[in-house]
Design a protein that fits this description.
174 residues, mainly alpha, BTB domain-containing protein, SKP1/BTB/POZ_sf, 64% helix
Length: 174
């Protein structure tokens, strides 16, 4: 803090800090989707943009990260909620791949908030994603993400096998 009463957050992105301040005053921020109400569904919010435009998915990761850094739990939850709504739209494109990179670059291994959301979205779209060279690059670049996706796949496989065994037991038990 300087003598003028100003606080300088030099290491933080000014737009992200602006969103944090907006949240502190209004309990929301604009992530670029045009929807500030977390209950509003936004079609194609993770879609293509003009060069230099910030992607809503990435914006929410950045806000989540700054909320973690400054210990603003409610903002962190809000950013995760907004991010989750966008990820749930099942858009798998360049913005989704950028979001995976941002999540795995900017969050701690133990912070499951956004990591579980992108892993679940990727798992739900694995067949489509495996045909996309950019997704393969993300898997190669972020081995930790690839391992978590594999763990989720193995867990779901185990659940399916257990359910099938239960159905078989019930079918033959009179």
């Amino acid at each position: 803090m300087s003598g003028s009463g100003e606080v300088h957050l030099k290491e933080d992105d000014p737009d992200t800090v602006g969103r944090m301040v907006d949240y502190l005053y209004t309990l929301d921020y604009d992530d670029g989707t045009g929807a500030v109400d977390p209950e509003v569904t936004v079609e194609d919010a993770a879609g293509p943009s003009q060069p230099g435009d910030e992607q809503p998915l990435t914006v929410n990761v950045q806000v989540y990260t700054v909320a973690e850094k400054y210990g603003i739990a409610a903002l962190k939850e809000h950013a995760a909620s907004k991010f989750g709504q966008l990820v749930a739209s099942n858009e798998v494109n360049e913005a989704f791949f950028a979001a995976i990179r941002e999540v795995y670059s900017c969050t701690a291994t133990t912070d499951r908030g956004l990591r579980d959301l992108v892993t679940q979205a990727a798992f739900s779209n694995t067949t489509k994603l495996m045909e996309m060279p950019e997704f393969i690059s993300v898997l190669e670049e972020f081995g930790e993400f690839a391992i978590e996706l594999l763990r989720m796949s193995a867990k779901k496989n185990d659940e399916l096998q257990a359910a099938a065994a239960s159905v078989a037991r019930d079918a033959f038990d009179w």
